[in-house]
Amino acid sequence: MKFFLDTANLEELRRGAALGVIDGVTTNPSLIAKEGRPVEERILEICGIVDGDVSAEVVAVEADRMVEEGRRLAAIHRNVVVKVPLTQDGIRATSILSREGIRVNVTLCFSPVQAILAAKAGAYIVSPFAGRLDDLAANGSELIRSIAEVYRIQGFRTQVLAASLRSPLHVFEAARAGAHIATLPFKLLDMLFHHPLTSKGLEKFLKDWREVFPEPPAAV
Ligand code: E4P
To answer: What is the dihedral of CA 154, 113, 81, 19, to 10 degrees?
Structure first.
């Protein structure tokens, strides 16, 4: 499963990329607006930090306008994946852009049948939102599992991107459900590292070492 960072913040992206486990980036209009920079400028900066798929979302709501905006976003950098919402216009735009060879991430997916529509339109990625479903007492991980299963059975090549993840358990469940990609806010990526027994274990190893070897080892 690939890890993407779900942010448009350059500092978070630099810190995440330095860890060596980040394969791409997702943004959405809320995340871009939060940074207050023009979308073209910010997406280009992101592409300079992370060498992988970078999703940039259209804000047009009508198919022809989405296609125009999608072409403009795709022209920013070869790694840009155009993100389009799962509406009738969005699916029409996905089918046009995909036939032109532009890769599309169909977002705001909340059901397996919506995911089938995205795949049929030629989407490169579909983004089911696990956390927002869980907020309504539905089961986001189950949605990811169902989509991954139906894509496997039907031979669809669209990748399943687990979005709206809020906890380490969400990340584990996404991997277990067969998601190809999980997109994580920086805070969640950081949470994946922590376990009290790791910190406690390391503390003890170093204490034992220093009791016998008080000087730090010579640099090689
Ligand atoms: C990513 O592509 C989505 O836009 C994002 O994961 C949504 O997350 P949220 O539900 O926490 O806003």
So the answer is: -80
Residue 65 φ/ψ region, left for φ over 0, alpha for ψ in the -120 to 50 degree band, beta for the rest: alpha
Checking if the pLDDT of 220 tops 80, the result is no
Percent share of the chain, pLDDT over 70:
100
Q: Residues 83, 187, 204, 207: which is the catalytic one?
A: 83
pLDDT tens digit string along 162-216?
A: 999 999 999 999 999 999 999 999 999 999 999 999 999 999 999 999 999 988 8
Q: Whose CA is nearest to atom 4 of ligand 1?
A: 28
Residues with CB under 6 A from ligand 1: 6, 26, 28, 107, 127, 129, 131-132, 163-164, 183
**Active site (annotated) includes residue 187:** no
Residue nearest atom 12 of ligand 1, based on CA coordinates? 164
Say whether pTM exceeds 0.90. yes
Residue 196 CA to ligand 1 center (angstroms) comes to 28
Please provide the average confidence, as pLDDT, over all residues in the chain: 97
In angstroms, the CA 145 to CA 71 distance is: 32
For residue 163, the CA-to-ligand 1 centroid distance in Å is: 5
Distance CA(132)–CA(166), nearest Å, equals: 9
CA of 28 to the centre of ligand 1 (A): 7
* Ligand 1, atom 11, residue with closest C-alpha: 164
What value, to the nearest 5°, has the Cα angle with vertex 190 and ends 137 and 79?
90
